[in-house]
Specification:
alpha/beta; 9-stranded mixed beta sheet; 19 strands; 27% helix; 6-stranded mixed beta sheet
Length: 489
C-alpha cells in the first residue's frame, strides 16, 4: 500500500491589512518533501502520524511539502499556484498511490481562488483517479464547501476549540482512510448548511456537552465521523458559515437525518453558543473590579490567529489613563520595539514607541518610558502538542501602567511560555489582557477566576455585521432573519 501526504494551510482574513505571499509561508513554516521535523504542527498531523504508522504497519509513505502561514490577507495568485503545483508535481512523481492525505486549514483564499482547497482537490482527483482514497483534515474554522466534500472520500475537522485534538483527528483520519482502502468501510458524506455563523468555544457550555454528544454518536449505527464546521467569518466568500458533516458507512439516509438534526440544533440555539462580548470600557471595569485570582480579558478583534496585526494600542492607552498596574497585555507584535529593548538590555529604562504601526485601525503608537523586565531570544509557546515561534521577545513595564509582552514573530496568546520564558508568572497578575479569541483558554483558562471578552479595534470583530460582505450567500444569520437551512449533500 502506498500513501502520499502533504499540507498547504492558512486562515485567510480577506479584511486583514497584512499582505500574504509565498514568503509569508516560508517565514512561518515550510518543510520541503521529506523534511518535516518530528515535532507536530497544527495542520500537518496526517503526514506526521502516517510517518509513524507506516514504520509500524508496513505501508509506504511518500511525503510531499508542507506549508503554513500565520493568518493574514488574500494570497497572491502566483504564490498560491507555486505552492499548489509543487505538491501536485510531487504527487505525480509518487504515482501510483492508493491514498492521499492532505492537511488543510480550510480557509485559504487566493486571488482567483475563493475555494483554494477545492481547486487543489479537483487537481489531485484528476491525477489519482476515482479509485484512490483521499482523506483531508481541516480546522473547524474552515469553509466546508460542497466541492471539497464531494471530491474527498473522508473529511474530518478538529472537534475542540481551542484545537487541542488535531493529533487525535489525524489518527482518526488515517484509520478511516486505511479501512476504506482495504474495503472494510464505504464512507458516504451528508452535509447540512443551517445558513448561519456563531462562535463555538468548547471549553464552556453549551458547546462542551454538544461535542461530547457527537463523540458518543461516532461508532454507533454506522456513523464513522461527525464534524461541526464553525466557519470563519472574517472571510468574504460565498460558502462562509457553519456546517455539519456526517460520514456514515454507506448509510446515506441515516446520515442525512443526523446532519439535519444537528444543524437544526445549531440554528435553534443560535446566539447561545457564544459568550458575551463587552465594550472595552465595560470589560475593563469588570476585570479591574474583580477580586480573588487572575481575571482574563480577551481581545478577539486584534487576534493574530484570525489575521489581525496584534498591535492595536487602544486598550493599553485606556489602562494608562486608569493608572492600572499589576496588569499584563500580551502579545503585542512590534519587531522594532523588541530590537530596541534587546539593545538596551535587561533592567534598562528607556523612552519607547511601540504598537500602532500596521493600519489606521491600530490606533496611535504608545510613547512611554519603560523598564525592560524580561528578554528572550528565538523563543516559543506551546499550542497543545505543537510549539509556536514567538521570535525574539521582550517584557516591558510602563510607569503607572501595565506590563506589556512584545514579540517579533506575529502570533496570538496561546501558551504560558509567553510569560515564563521571559521570567514572568502569569498567575501573579490580577488581570491578563490576551490578544486571542479562544485559543488562550487551553493554557490560561484553568488558572483564571474570570474570563471575559471585549470588543476593541482590529480586523477580527466579534460581530459579523461589522464586515462589509459582498460575496457571502444571503440570506444568512445574523446578517438576515428569514433564513432556512438546507441539506447540501
Amino acid at each position: 500500500m502506498r500513501l502520499f501526504a502533504a499540507s498547504l494551510a492558512t486562515e485567510t482574513n480577506t479584511f486583514s491589512p497584512i499582505p500574504t505571499s509565498r514568503a509569508s509561508f516560508e517565514a512561518a513554516f515550510y518543510a520541503p518533501a521529506g523534511e518535516h521535523p518530528d515535532l507536530p504542527k497544527l495542520c500537518t498531523a496526517p503526514l506526521l502520524i502516517a510517518r509513524r504508522r507506516a514504520a509500524q504497519e508496513g505501508f509506504t509513505l511518500i511525503e510531499g511539502s508542507s506549508f503554513w502561514a500565520e493568518p493574514s490577507s488574500t494570497i497572491d495568485r502566483e504564490s498560491f499556484e507555486s505552492m499548489r503545483d509543487e505538491i501536485l508535481e510531487q504527487l505525480k512523481a509518487a504515482m501510483p498511490v492508493d491514498g492521499v492525505l492532505m492537511g488543510f486549514h480550510g480557509a485559504l483564499v487566493a486571488d482567483g481562488y475563493d475555494d483554494a482547497e477545492g481547486d487543489m482537490l479537483e487537481r489531485i482527483r484528476n491525477i489519482v483517479g476515482k479509485e484512490c482514497t483521499i482523506g483531508c483534515e481541516y480546522d473547524p474554522h474552515c469553509h466546508l464547501t460542497e466541492k471539497r466534500v464531494q471530491l474527498a472520500n473522508i473529511s474530518i475537522l478538529f472537534k475542540e476549540y481551542p484545537h487541542i485534538d488535531f493529533l487525535d483527528r489525524g489518527e482518526e483520519l488515517l484509520s478511516l482512510v486505511l479501512r476504506t482502502i482495504r474495503g472494510e468501510i464505504k464512507p458516504v458524506a451528508s452535509l447540512y448548511d443551517p445558513r448561519m455563523w456563531d462562535f463555538y468555544p468548547t471549553t464552556t457550555e453549551p458547546m462542551r456537552s454538544f461535542v461530547d454528544r457527537i463523540k458518543a454518536l461516532e461508532g454507533q449505527d454506522g456513523v464513522l465521523s461527525i464534524s461541526i464546521g464553525h466557519g470563519f467569518m472574517h472571510a468574504d466568500v460565498a460558502d462562509m458559515g457553519s456546517r455539519v458533516l456526517v460520514i456514515t458507512d454507506d448509510r446515506k439516509s441515516a446520515g442525512d437525518r443526523l446532519a439535519a438534526d444537528l444543524g437544526r440544533e445549531l440554528w435553534e440555539r443560535r446566539g447561545a453558543w457564544s459568550p458575551r462580548a463587552l465594550s472595552m470600557e465595560d470589560g475593563l471595569n469588570e476585570v479591574l473590579a474583580h477580586g480573588g485570582g487572575t481575571a482574563i480579558l480577551a481581545e478577539p478583534a486584534d487576534n493574530a490567529g484570525g489575521g489581525a496585526a496584534s498591535d492595536d494600542t487602544r486598550i493599553i492607552h485606556a489602562l494608562l489613563q486608569r493608572g492600572a498596574q499589576n496588569v499584563a497585555v500580551a502579545p503585542v507584535w512590534d519587531p522594532v520595539a523588541v530590537s530596541f529593548c534587546h539593545g538596551a538590555g535587561l533592567g534598562a529604562r528607556l523612552p519607547l514607541r511601540f504598537g500602532g504601526k500596521t493600519a489606521p485601525e491600530s490606533e496611535p503608537p504608545v510613547d512611554h518610558t519603560v523598564e525592560v523586565i524580561g528578554l528572550a531570544v528565538d523563543t516559543w509557546q506551546h499550542f497543545g502538542a505543537a510549539q509556536v515561534p514567538l521570535g525574539d521577545a521582550a517584557a516591558i513595564r510602563l510607569e503607572n501602567g501595565p506590563d506589556v509582552i512584545l514579540i517579533s514573530s506575529r502570533t496570538q496568546a496561546l501558551g504560558t511560555e509567553l510569560f515564563t520564558h521571559l521570567g514572568l508568572d502569569p498567575a501573579a497578575y490580577r488581570v491578563l489582557v490576551l490578544k486571542s479569541a479562544q485559543h488562550f483558554a487551553g493554557a490560561f483558562g484553568p488558572g483564571a477566576s474570570l474570563i471575559l471578552r471585549a470588543e476593541t479595534g482590529g480586523c477580527c470583530p466579534t460581530d459579523p455585521n461589522r464586515h462589509a460582505y459582498t460575496k457571502v450567500t444571503r440570506p444568512f444569520w445574523p446578517l438576515d432573519d428569514n433564513v432556512e437551512g438546507r441539506l447540501l449533500i
